[in-house]
Amino acid sequence: QVQLVESGGGLVQAGGSLRLSCAASGGTFRNYAMGWFRQAPGKEREFVATIMSGDTTYYADSVKGRFAISRDNAKNTLYLQMNTLKPEDTAVYYCAANQWVLYRPRDPREYDYWGQGTQVTVSS
Fold first, then answer.
1. How distant is the alpha carbon of residue 53 from its chain centre?
2. Whether 118 contacts 9, CB under 8 Å
3. Rounded to whole angstroms, what are the CA distances from 75 to 30, 37, 48, 61, 124?
4. CB within 8 Å of 59: residues ≥ 6 apart
5. Is the confidence at residue 1, as pLDDT, over 90?
6. pLDDT of 124 above 90
7. Each residue's pLDDT tens digit, 18-59
8. Which of 39, 41, 43, 68 could form a disulfide with 81 if both were Cys (CB 3.0 to 4.6 A apart)?
9. How many angstroms separate the CA atoms of 65 and 26, rounded?
């Protein structure tokens, strides 16, 4: 059973930066595709970024060039570096793991395990 715990969220001014972390336990982390999703109040869960087990990455157009997803397999940890933050980035951010085969990185239904989320608030 895979467990995921996010951390690093907080309140930041527009233009600032945050780095989110997702600590994974159980299973074999290095073999998993890992993703970040976010959900604002009253909105659907939205794809942010994915990193495959071979380190191929995918990004939503809204964050491309500002966010960077990475992983440290030795530490079983996933990261999301968020730069040039905008108020529209405000949301609860979730990490997720795909344990088997990932066909559609942007589809939350492709992910088997989810963390509890961490709040990111960007003020203007």
1. 15
2. yes
3. 10, 21, 22, 29, 35
4. 48, 49, 67, 69
5. no
6. yes
7. 999 999 999 899 999 999 999 999 999 999 999 999 999 999
8. 68
9. 32
Residue 70 has a pLDDT of 98
Q: How confident is the model at residue 122 (pLDDT cuts 50, 70, 90)?
A: very high
Pairing of strands 57-59, 67-72: unpaired
CA distance 80 to 71: 9
Output the CA–CA distances (angstroms, integers) from residue 55 to 1, 49, 64, 74, 76, in the order listed. 23, 12, 16, 14, 14
What was the pLDDT predicted at 101? 83
| Residue 65 CA to its chain's centroid (Å) | 15
Q: Partners of 69 in the beta sheet? A: 80
pLDDT in the model for residue 100? 86
Residue pair 106/94 in contact (Cβ under 8 Å)? The answer is: no
